[in-house]
Specification:
53% helix, binds ligand C2E, 28 strands, 779 residues, rod-shaped, binds calcium ion, alpha/beta
Length: 779
């Protein structure tokens, strides 16, 4: 299955935009991750450095604290009164000096030691209810490094102790002072450096956090037993923890410094967020831009695709779009359009070859058929205008070709096309050459009357002889007409019926013939009768009828015309007009004629007929006349039945003679010599002149029934009959009138000195027995 246009667009856009956006996103995500990790790592490094610093500051603060204590202690040690009191062992003074001094500098414990570092007196602040047990340990540690300070855990709290010698000038004792390592110190750190501080004290099983600047949840976390965390989570914050152990007696003391990662990372994260927003906006813009680009690419591709479909479907009419573009798409579109025009041109050429007759330049049969179909299809269902098809077949064209050559025949056809053209000059009307010597005209808005008129003008145009190569040719043609919608519903039916009409015109020599259903049925029947005809003779289905002829001028020879009938097993009695023309075409008529002749001879040989002495007229057709053996065959039959030739008259039509006058004349001479009476049948319908007929050995002339039947109504017909009779008599011929249907005509003919008459008024053709009965009645 071929892809649909939308699928093409989608797949291309998806590929173009999707892939590039994906790549862009990957790059951006990687960058984002690197920045993210980098920010975190840098923040931790920075915090570690800050915590290093915090740690130094914290220790420094503790150091300063100790220094302050030492100075306070030194002040007491340098006090003259105090020294004197120590020297004098003035216990109350010592005690009050220790108390006063300690209170002044805020010491938690102030003590006087003797030179052997034993406790001589002490003053404790209210927070220390009793002398701490850890004191000896503190003193011991300080004795080892008198310049330093010592942290001690007392009652779960850390205290810093210093020791200063009491000189007079020799060392007479030591002043020991202890201060709590307290909240103020931590608060100061926090204020100074923004670092959180906590002091964790572990004494025995208990862990306390006496000093802390962190909120309660963090405190709880710091109090959990076990190793101290390096990092801990407080809500959304991550805290880095730096633990510093302080050497202490009476327990473990850790200073914990805490800094939040987020305070460092926060601003950077905001920057990163901004970066992400910018990236997203960038990706969006990129997608839009790429989409527009892809659209610009795929839209023309799609229209090219639909254009190729149109071309494949045979529609070359629509020019391609995008040919104005200056890019590769434009090149492609232009090249496609060039291809379209070229194919269209070739198609037109091929169509022209297929639909045009090369010789005359007229449309051919197929084109004509299509034009008729289109004309019918274009009709609105109501109020349609009638159409007419005229089919014209040139007479004797084969003869022209044979005698004058094919080149001449071609010229003749071209000349005919030339003559026909003006008769269908208005646009939708059409002249076509639909066969070797067949031409057709399609006339729009033509009802039967108009079509007949048009046919008549064509016939007139054909009357002028054609001058070709200094030869003069008489054109003649048979013209069949069929009209839509009366005669057929579709194009093929219409053509078919025009052809039937044309053949009927040929058959009846009527030049123009309008289609009539009767023609159709007769021709259809003719076709089915063809196969049966041969069998009819073999199976004895033919019947001989006789139609009486009566003498009008006294003499009393009996005469009758032999007319054949076909007693068809299914169709009944078939009239000769439905099979004689076909028999003539196929040549079978020769057997038919012999059958009639033999039947007539057999009848005449019978005693009843012989007694009557009837002269029987038998019809001969062209084929019979051109058969060189005709006279022998007839003689043969006469011999067999013992009948004389003088008992017969042979009727020959003018046209039968004119088809090949020389051979016909020779045969007629032989037949006349044999003793046959000869008659010119259907006189008046052909073109032969009496002057010519005079040369022939004929004795009788039969005036065609069309003139006889029209005698009373048409003045012209009566004139023709009268002059024919006169002329015939002048030439010494006897005249028979056929088609006498009334007593008036019979009387009229008698007055005109016509010799014999034949017609329904006298009798219809009769079976042989009926004929004998009829004769008996006449007598
Ligand atoms: P045709 O030789 O001109 O025969 C005369 C035809 O006119 C006959 O028609 C006859 O029945 C008819 N006819 C006679 N009187 C009248 C009349 O008063 N009014 C009218 N309207 N018609 C009349 P049919 O028998 O149908 O024969 C038609 C044609 O068939 C004949 O015309 C002839 O050409 C041909 N045909 C008939 N029998 C034979 C035959 O045995 N051999 C040959 N070769 N042709 C035959
Ligand atoms: Ca006849
Ligand atoms: Ca006749």
């Amino acid at each position: 299955m071929s892809p649909t246009p939308t699928r093409v667009r989608h797949s291309l856009i998806l590929k173009l935009v999707g892939v590039s956006i994906l790549l862009l996103l990957i790059v951006q995500a990687a960058g984002f991750a690197v920045v993210h990790v980098g920010i975190d790592r840098n923040a931790r490094l920075q915090l570690a450095r800050e915590l290093d610093n915090d740690e130094r500051v914290w220790l420094r603060l503790l150091e300063q604290n100790a220094e302050r204590l030492r100075q306070g202690s030194a002040l007491l040690a340098a006090d003259y009164g105090f020294r004197a009191a120590v020297s004098s062992d003035d216990q109350p003074t010592i005690q009050s000096a220790l108390e006063n001094h300690g209170a002044r500098i805020g010491a938690a414990a102030t003590a006087l030691l003797d030179t052997r570092l034993a406790l001589r007196a002490a003053s404790l602040a209210s927070e220390l209810p009793q002398m701490p047990a850890e004191l000896p340990l503190v003193v011991q540690a300080l004795a080892a490094q008198p310049q330093g300070s010592q942290v001690a855990v007392i009652a779960g709290r850390p205290y810093q102790f210093v020791m200063v010698p009491l000189r007079a000038p020799l060392v007479i004792g030591w002043v020991l002072m202890g201060f709590p390592v307290g909240q103020p110190l931590a608060d100061e750190m926090r204020q100074l450096l923004g670092v959180d501080v906590a002091v964790r004290v572990q004494a025995g099983a208990s862990t306390t956090l006496p000093v802390a600047t962190v909120p309660a949840p963090v405190r709880a976390r710091l109090l959990q037993p076990g190793a101290l965390p390096l990092e801990l989570q407080a809500g959304t914050h991550t805290l880095l923890v730096r633990a510093r152990a302080l050497p202490a007696v009476g327990g473990e003391v850790h200073t914990l410094l805490l800094r939040s990662v987020d305070t460092v990372v926060g601003p950077l994260r905001q920057l990163q967020l901004l970066l992400a927003v910018i990236t997203a906006a960038g990706v969006l813009l990129f997608a839009l831009g790429n989409g527009a680009m892809a659209q610009r690419l795929t839209t023309p591709l799609r229209s090219l695709l639909t254009a190729t479909r149109r071309l494949a479907g045979g529609d070359y009419s629509e020019p391609l779009r995008h040919t104005g573009r200056s890019d590769e798409i434009g090149d492609l579109a232009r090249s496609f359009d060039g291809m379209r025009l070229e194919i269209a041109r070739q198609q037109a050429e091929v169509r022209d070859l297929a639909y045009r007759d090369r010789l005359t330049g007229l449309p051919n049969r197929e084109r004509f058929r299509q034009a008729v179909m289109q004309a019918i299809a274009a009709q609105p269902p109501l109020g349609s205008t009638p159409l007419a098809v005229l089919l014209l077949d040139l007479d004797r064209f084969k003869h022209v070709n044979d005698v004058l050559g094919y080149a001449f025949g071609d010229r003749l056809l071209q000349a005919v096309a030339q003559r026909l053209r003006p008769h269908a000059s208005q646009a939708p009307d059409l002249v076509a050459r639909v066969g070797g010597n067949e031409f057709a005209l399609l006339l729009h808005d033509a009802d039967p009357t108009r079509a007949l008129k048009a046919a008549q003008t064509i016939v007139q145009a054909f009357e002028a002889p054609l001058e070709l190569n200094e030869q003069t040719v008489d054109l003649s043609a048979a013209l069949g007409i069929a009209c839509w919608p009366g005669h057929a519903a579709d194009a093929d039916g219409l053509l078919n019926r025009a052809e039937i009409a044309m053949y009927a015109a040929k058959r009846t020599l009527s030049v123009v013939q309008m289609y009539d259903p009767a023609l159709d049925s007769s021709s259809a029947q003719t076709l089915t009768l063809l196969g049966d005809l041969r069998r009819a003779v073999e199976q004895d289905e033919l019947r001989l009828f006789l139609q009486p002829k009566v003498a009008l001028q006294g003499h009393h020879t009996l005469a009758a015309e032999a007319l054949v009938r076909w007693q068809h097993p299914q169709r009944g009695l078939v009239p000769p007009m439905q099979f004689i023309p076909f028999a003539e075409q196929t040549g079978f008529v020769r057997q038919l004629t012999l059958w009639v002749f033999e039947a007539a001879a057999r009848w005449q040989a019978q005693p009843q007929a012989r007694a009557l002495g009837v002269r029987v007229s038998v019809n001969l057709s062209t084929r019979d006349l051109l058969d060189p053996d005709l006279s022998h065959r007839l003689d043969d039959i006469l011999q067999r039945h013992g009948v004389a030739a003088t008992a017969f008259c042979l009727e020959i039509t003018e046209s039968a003679i004119m088809d090949d006058p020389q051979r016909a004349e020779a045969m007629l001479n032989r037949l006349a010599q044999q003793g046959f009476r000869l008659s010119i049948d259907d006189f008046g319908t052909g073109y032969s002149s009496l002057a010519y007929l005079r040369r022939l050995p004929v004795q009788e002339l039969k005036i065609d029934k069309s003139f006889v039947m029209g005698m009373q109504s048409a003045e012209g017909d009566a004139m023709i009959v009268r002059s024919t009779i006169d002329l015939a008599h002048n030439l010494g011929l006897s005249v028979v009138a056929e088609g006498v249907e009334s007593a008036d005509i019979l009387e009229h003919l008698r007055r005109l000195k016509c010799d014999e008459a034949q017609g329904y008024h006298i009798s219809r053709p009769l079976p042989l027995d009926d004929y004998l009965a009829w004769q008996a009645r006449q007598a």
